[in-house]
Amino acid sequence: MKTDLNGKRIVVTGGTGGIAQATAQLLLDCGAEVIVSARTDEKLEAALAELTGKATGFTLDLLDPSSIKRFFEKVGTFDHLVTPASTSTLSPIRELDLASTRTLLESKQWGQMLTAHYALPYLSETGSITLFSGTVTQKPLPGSSAFAAVGAASEAMARVWALELAPIRVNTVVPGVIDTPAWAGLTGSEDAAKETLAAIGGSLPVKRAGMPIDIAKAVLFVIDNEFVDGISLVVDGGHRVI
Questions:
Q1: Considering only the top CATH level, what class is 9-180+212-232?
Q2: Which terminal residue of the chain, N or C, has fewer Cβ atoms less than 10 Å from its own Cβ?
């Protein structure tokens, strides 16, 4: 049975990313009105051009609290918040890239916290917040200490907020290795990304890397199921068990 989200307004931050875009489109396909964000007008226009359905958007800089506040003032009242937007970096602690690591910490952990803070005056009490982490919180990956730290913080925040904000539901989706454009930046090239994803995917019990739609379906589940609250939903193709 198809989930019916007609009449629901859902904010998805970072509409230009692979996971954010797939999530926004799936929610649109289920009848929701979706409001996406991007850091620039150009990126926002490009993101909206890829979406079909009742999609709108505004610019949003997760490193700027005043930008986040203005974003939600423009959005107005809505039903669900989804926060997949983030940057990515891999760096061993001995070779730590201070600038990119600081950006990751501020955009993902602090950015998600500020996003929830400024969203709350407009968020329905029958609605939900979906944060994002990553399976490096459970499956160690060399070079991922910063991402593991912010992911673990997101999962912990969600459990606290599930109590603080009740009856608003708060959950965290925990993606595994997902085939998105971010991997080209992490590995240095598109060819290297393909090789890395194929190698990791082949080692998983499901024999493939994840796709953005796999995560979008998880987001839809935690939004739609009103008895799911305070969980970290791992969607990693069995990566954590090998």
A1: alpha beta
A2: N
